[in-house]
Amino acid sequence: MIKVLPVISRKLSHVCSLKPFKETKWLMPNGNPIGVYVYNCIADQKVPVILNDPTIATWYSCGPTVYDSAHIGHACCYVKLDILQRIMKSFFNIKLVTAMGITDIDDKIIKKAKETNTDFRIVAKNFEHEFWLDLSSLNIEKPMIITRVSEYMPTIQSFVKNLIDSEMAYIATDGSVYFDTSKFPSYGKLQNMQDNGEPTSNEKRNKMDFALWKGFKPGEPFWETSWGKGRPGWHIECSAMVSKVFGSQIDFHAGGIDLQFPHHENEEAQSCAFHNTMQWANYWIHVGHLSLKDVKMSKSLQNTLSIPDFLKIYTSDIFRMACLMSNYRYPMEYTDEIMKTAESVLKKFKFFLNDVLLYVNKSDTGHGDYDKKLLNELQKVESNNLEALKNDFDTSSCINSLLNLVTVTNKIIKADTKDHYPVPVILIAQYITNILSNFGLKLQDNTENDLSNLLIDTLVDFRHIVRNNALQRKDKELLTACDMVRDKMKTMKVQINDSNKTASWVITK
């Protein structure tokens, strides 16, 4: 049973009256429970999702710093977030308003611009354009709202000014502005840590203080403010942009696990201070890293694989299936073995759906009938899958239950009997298709559209008849010829699946 604290007032007479962290827990929002539970890092447990409006939710994802190409480590994060958003919309009928922030002014962008002798704005625009192309190639839905730091500068400046005026931030001698964590006792609640208040430099009063605004440096872009020239710090941008779009509170705030501290911690602190509230984001969603043999995939380690290069090896559906078979919160390892496993699972579903079409349209004698056991199995799987998704988006359990449903159904459609149960079988196929599509799988490749399905069907059927006759006559020469046809088709990205009664095929990568 999930434990949560009673609802308490969010509004404060003064931010400094916040209780120390040890007494500050996740606060249950006012509103309507939707029956879903999600892990919350502040509570360190799964908590109920409660929305002000039971059908509407706001969602902000931290986007990329556009100074270089994205890699499959980024892809893993955004595919998993896309899956969670699709689940909210498709399975729980939530009208999800999504936004993503793009960091288009940053130290790394400035450095890249200097290295390439290019304007920093052009660097950012080029890599942002590439980023959206990458996301599209992975069938990731584009956010409804895109916020760019360079386009929200007045909002960011106003946000910083407010914190200065409320004495939650101070101006350093170099023109930088720092958030004063000593005046925010609940700082560190996302990771259960606290500042010991020790100063570390002439500019920062406390070692955990962080920059809201960076003072001007020669050769760098800058904006004029009432306290001097400079540019935004990294953390302030998301708080200001989210507040501009969604107001004083947001339902879901998402990103990679590496953003939990300091980025999200700092966002929560400065936003609570700005809005004079005890809780800004109700639900923090953090995605585990993609790793290579327990090593994080990152540009600094030079062990990345670009998204276009990955898609030369595997399809976007294969990558998404691998993501579905893992838990979004935990690290996911990238290996050929794991990708091959995901590919195998995907093929099993494709073969099954093709076999169902052959089964329901077969011309054997006999009459169609209902199979109550199959219908009961379908109902049980539907119920179990919905409960799994309510339990912190457990897609792995869903995929396993779908595979079990395929196994049970295959025993019926491949049995050597005249019994025919087209209704439950087609309902099962429809359910599997719907749930996989709602997870964002396309279930077909572009290559498939360019081939003549009719021609392939004819060839596969002809080979099936020849092969069955050869098996009955034990004709090794004909069987070898059939194997040659199968192998040749495989080189053409068409994989044939043989069975006693029928044969089917799928397009492979």
Tally of strands: 16
Low-confidence stretches: 1-23
Annotation field: number of helices: 15
Rounded to the nearest angstrom, the radius of gyration is 28 Å
Percent of residues in beta strands:
15-25%
Based on secondary structure, the structural category is alpha/beta
Helix content: 40-55%
Please, what is the average pLDDT? 89
Q: How many strands, which pairing sense, and closed or not: the largest β-sheet?
A: 5 strands, parallel
Strand order of the largest sheet: 5-4-3-10-11
Query: How does the overall form come out from the CA principal axes?
Result: elongated
Describe the structure.
It is elongated, with a radius of gyration of 28 Å. The chain has a 5-stranded parallel sheet with strand order 5-4-3-10-11, with helices on both faces. Helix 14 packs antiparallel against helix 15. It is an alpha/beta fold. The N terminus is likely disordered.
Please name the defining characteristics of this protein.
15 helices, disordered N terminus, single chain, 509 residues, alpha/beta, 5-stranded parallel β-sheet, 16 strands, 4-stranded antiparallel β-sheet
Spell out the blueprint of helices and strands.
Elements: E1 32-40, E2 45-51, E3 56-65, H1 72-90, E4 95-103, H2 107-116, H3 120-137, E5 145-148, H4 153-165, E6 169-171, E7 177-179, E8 210-215, E9 230-232, H5 234-246, E10 250-256, H6 260-275, E11 281-287, E12 290-292, E13 295-296, H7 307-310, H8 316-324, E14 332-333, H9 336-360, H10 372-390, H11 395-413, H12 422-438, H13 446-450, H14 453-473, H15 476-491, E15 494-498, E16 503-507
Parallel strand pairs: 3-4, 3-10, 4-5, 10-11, 12-14
Antiparallel strand pairs: 1-2, 6-7, 7-8, 8-9, 12-13, 15-16
Helix pairs in contact: 1-8, 2-3, 4-5, 5-6, 8-9, 9-11, 9-12, 10-11, 10-12, 14-15
